[in-house]
Amino acid sequence: MAHQPFHLPERQALFSTDTCPDSPPEGERWSTWDGATHGPVPRPDWVITDLGAVEADLGILKSGKEADVHVVRRWVPGTTRSSLLAAKRYRSSEHRMFHRDAGYLEGRRVRRSREMRAMARRTDFGKELLTGQWAHAEFSALVELWERGLPVPYPVQLDEAEMLMEFIGTDGPDGAIAAPRLHQVRTDVDLQSLFDQFRDLLLDLAEAGWTHGDLSPYNALVHEDRLVVIDWPQIVDVIGNPQGFGFLERDVRTMCDWFSRKGLAVDAHELFGEAAALAAATA
Ligand SMILES: Nc1ncnc2c1ncn2[C@@H]1O[C@H](COP(=O)(O)OP(=O)(O)OP(=O)(O)O)[C@@H](O)[C@H]1O
Ligand SMILES: [Mg+2]
Questions:
Q1: Distance 19 CA to ligand 2 centre (A)
Q2: Domain segments of the chain: what residues?
Q3: Which residues are 85's β-sheet partners?
Q4: Does the pTM of the predicted model rise above 0.90?
């Protein structure tokens, strides 16, 4: 699935630049940038903010239990400026089957981040999450993680319908090709380098008091030898959540088990100890 190419929409001469049409061509929409909550600045230069930009949905990348991920192209007609985005659309509360249970929400500390504090002021954070604001939770987490320089997709924008983020993969004449998930990578990859990247991420997160909460080779993409971790709505506050150390231990174990099965000598126990000590120091 991850290697499936998507066909590019016809980009030439959509409409001439000296006319201003009332509506975009069939099958496309005006850019949804205006009116959405935007990601952190400074923005990467590939982010298109022009009001005259147009978007097309290129198709579904993956249908998950709680959300569907689509590939969207946004481009500026009459120019060569174009970029791919991953659009995560959470299901409405009636149609979801959350595997992320209330355990994630217990004792969730809301501190440090401006976004998270703002959310906490508006409403009880846990209640808001329980009533279905997972997209908001994931966007806020990505904003914070991106600002800390961690390897996550850049969060482009959030509105009621979807979260748009950086598409991790390649864009070329044959279509968009999504990066494979860690569990699908070829055997000739540099496993040690990928493990080191996972370890750095885990320890950086622990230093901030967090763990991913659902970390696995399914939620890590490998793009040009770089590990990029996705799927963050349930990010766990290790100290504030009564099960925080349990989530941290599971994240470490799931990843270490995978690397061990691939033949790498890793010490899950030691890594958990290191991460737990860093998280405990944030108390
Ligand atoms: N930014 C992205 N760039 C490229 N591919 C992505 C991106 N985000 C998600 N995907 C693809 O979509 C899949 C589902 O994304 P994600 O894990 O965030 O959603 P999910 O609903 O939690 O799915 P699941 O229930 O399978 O865990 C990923 O495994 C990955 O293959
Ligand atoms: Mg996932």
A1: 43
A2: 28-94+143-177, 180-280
A3: 72, 166
A4: no
